[in-house]
């Protein structure tokens, strides 16, 4: 039995298999391979290998004394890989491809009892709902001291797809990717470290598919909606007319939210990380440095977890109607962390909802806990719910409450503490947001 994620991936990739190699992936896998040092004689495992673009490069590097194995779940992709192998049987005698779900490597007979010098995952990590758990599973097959290499997308890369992902989350629909966590180099570093790996480097690879940066007109949302939601909807996620109508409105809204001066910018970059399993086979624990994790947090059931390398700041109690009803009480207490310092390490049950025009809110669908929100008017900062912070992990003191906001919407049964904090009828950005 394959995972739901794998079933969706097959739907997504089967129809692309026959012309997958006529894309930028060929060039990108060469750049990926150049960042890892593979030695003759080594044993390499290329997961989500697709048509084997990277696997064949790895086979070249390990030579006849080594071995390269590619695993993928999509039959069409593997047929192309096998075809290429058959064309050069002698050269590729030491390459093997296996079909299987890489979230369940234990089910693949050929991998039983094996450990590899190098494991790679190219252009696939953002297909998995919980990247850290997936990496942890994959690296069970990595030798102590072995190398793991993976990439994840820049938040502005492949913008139409990212907008679609946000729309799907708002409609509670499944799409075959999960990119929201991959914000910068430190997000990928954090995910690798949470999987117990020691990170050698994380770099930004620019010009992944060759265009660098490009601008779209804000009015172009409609073209991308048709392309992504109607033409490319292989899993028929949006096939129902009612869902499609709702998706159309949300697609426009999410697209417009990304626009600056009427233009939406797309950046053709990815983050590429190379990490190692500690030589004694143990889990790597990040050492103390200026980037030390100062607290962890998450929801009640563990489906959402995060780490922060920055102390909490700007403690704010919000009494708006949305916070009141979400909390089930009269208010929600928040604190701020810069996005650079925050890493969502487990996101399998995380859902984003827009409940007011000011912010996207994150929740855990497993236990219902509110996690935090991102304001539309303030980039680079996330507000986390104070109750999501694990005090057991916290090295520091929670700052004093700075402000009580949206007091004009406060429920009558709530008493605001007399703590000397600022009291605002709305909030500091009210003018900017056009609030009276
Ligand atoms: C964008 S392609 C990348 C292929 C290749 N690594 C490359 O760089 O050209 C993503 C691949 O991930 C595979 N994939 C997705 N989920 C998978 C899963 N659970 N198990 C195995 N393969 C999976 C898909 O079948 C597809 O071939």
TrEMBL record:
Instruction: Fetch the CDD domains from UniProt.
Output: AdoMet_MTases (cd02440)
**UniProt cross-references to Pfam families, sorted A to Z:** GFA, Methyltransf_31
Keyword terms of this UniProt record: Metal-binding, Methyltransferase, Transferase, Zinc
Gene3D superfamilies, per this entry? Answer: glutathione-dependent formaldehyde- activating enzyme (gfa) (3.90.1590.10), Vaccinia Virus protein VP39 (3.40.50.150)
Is the keyword Zinc in the record? yes
Sequence ranges assigned to domain CENP-V/GFA in this UniProt record: 295-414
**Annotated GO biological process:** methylation
Indicate the family of this protein: Belongs to the Gfa family.
Stated name of the protein: S-adenosyl-L-methionine-dependent methyltransferase
